[in-house]
Design brief:
homodimer, alpha+beta, 60s Ribosomal Protein L30, Chain: A, Phosphoribosyl-aminoimidazole Synthetase, Chain A, domain 2, 7-stranded mixed sheet
Chain lengths: 295, 295
């Protein structure tokens, strides 16, 4: 019979890892994280079966993707990751499932040099609540500080995750499938964005909704040029989400900045308090909004 | 139609509260928590419908109980709470449900002077992943540091939550019902325990399992006297759980300590690496173990 203890044992080698950042690791009532002379950046993200990933997703990919998606919020704050904790719900009674899940956790922990400091586990439909913790590279970049006249950049193409999920469902081989199940978070970009940007958000719910959030929080508007946006499929890539690229604004004075000029300049911040998409030099009527798990 | 935004609006007044501990509250990609010259104590706890609370539990009680249960782990570490974040899964399409849930969150935030710093919400069977954060009163008290010859204390009666749930199911009026739905966490006890105890754990999975964990982690055994244990119902109170009292060990030199002498002395730590329950001066054969959500 599978027991909570036998499942927790699958994670033991991960939480046993020594770190000078950790005073007490997992296995006690709580973890104790060493005090640092830096403000702590923290975010929570739930990934649920059938909502955030399909039913037949491999357990190692469930782990990897759930954690990557949560990390994306740190990158969007101009912060690097330091540790995570996981609240896992699963109804699998196969210990192999948990071992595979753990291998996905280990893979991403190693990739981003993070520590797993604890978590909880309970029985039910698969759902992963990931808590991420980090510290700012230079300073935290908020959604609420875009300024009129700022340029708008995105750090990569939209729609790759969407394409990957579609290819996977159609059992096609494609380079995009990994982009859905194992999205890479561009912390190297987050580092220079934390120096130069005036505002930033990660494109998880779709560019329209996420840039819309910058506009709303900053009390400004935006105009973006469809032809300048690197897309994978069609105009729906602008609202689909699952991109985990960054959208940021910065002063026009940064236009020749070597790091920023490698990103995609897609528009500018305006004073009109609305988000306009210009396509073939006409204003495109964009009725759809982005991702909403309750809609 | 209910939307993620309309639900998040229910929480807005809670996360908008100003605090000198918070640099960025909720509403951005992540929260930013002010650096403190103290190690951070962190724990995660999932409470799921039908597993950790019954189906018809009021939303305000789901919130209160889920958070209280998570806080209990901080108390067991000799730490006081400072802030929390919540990963909420719910399939309710009634905005009133979320308002009631929020009122339960607000109640317990006020009771323990904590701040809600963020969270996530998704659609599904009701489940609350609560992340708690705090700092040690004096020092953290681990499970692994009990010593042979130490005395074993518990801070309150066992089985009250069990009785409360039973009374509620039988539609009886009783003082115990609140003990199940709104358990109080004794941080005032945690404060002196953090000074005097050699080890500590919260009794959430049942005394037998939880004291067993102290023994296992400390490489010691324990002998407890059934007649000295304050119970509410019968001997099953020793393994049922849902108590959220503390079980701690301390040196016999503390026997006359005014604070500790108010708690219940139930036994002593032995060298025998097993947990024995003595009843009517005989060794009671305790086959049952404590709570396991997978068993």
């Amino acid at each position: 019979m599978i027991s909570e203890l036998s499942i927790l044992d699958c994670f033991q080698h991960l939480v046993d890892k020594k770190s000078d950042k950790l005073i007490v690791g997992s296995g006690d009532d709580a973890a104790v994280i060493k005090s640092q002379d830096k403000d702590l950046v923290h975010s929570v993200d739930i990934s649920k079966i059938n909502t955030h990933f399909p039913k037949d997703t491999r357990p190692e990919d469930i782990a990897y993707r759930s954690i990557a998606v949560a990390l994306s919020d740190l990158a969007a704050m101009g912060a690097y990751p330091s540790f995570i904790s996981i609240g896992l719900t699963s109804n699998s009674s196969d210990l192999g499932w948990y071992k595979k899940f753990t291998s996905g956790v280990e893979k991403i922990l190693n990739e981003y040099q993070m520590h797993l400091v604890g978590g909880d586990i309970t029985k039910g439909e698969v759902s992963v609540c990931v808590n991420v913790f980090g510290y700012a590279y230079e300073k935290n970049i908020l959604r609420s500080t875009a300024e009129i006249g700022d340029l708008i950049f995105i750090t990569g193409a939209l729609g790759e995750g969407r394409q990957g999920l579609s290819d996977w469902k159609n059992k096609e081989k494609s380079e995009y499938i990994q982009k859905f199940f194992n999205p890479k978070i561009s912390f190297c970009k987050s580092e220079y964005i934390s120096k130069y940007a005036t505002s930033c958000i990660d494109i998880s719910d779709g560019l329209i909704k996420d840039l819309g959030s910058i506009c709303k929080k900053s009390g400004v508007g935006a105009e973006i040029i469809f032809e300048e946006i690197p897309i994978t499929n069609d105009i729906d890539d602008l609202y689909y989400g699952d991109d985990y690229k960054l959208c940021y604004t910065c002063s026009p004075r940064q236009i020749d900045n070597k790091l920023i000029s490698k990103d995609y300049l897609i528009g500018k911040i305006t004073s009109q308090k609305e988000l306009l998409v210009r396509k073939e030099n006409l204003i495109f009527d964009f009725k759809k909004n982005g991702w909403d798990s309750f809609a």
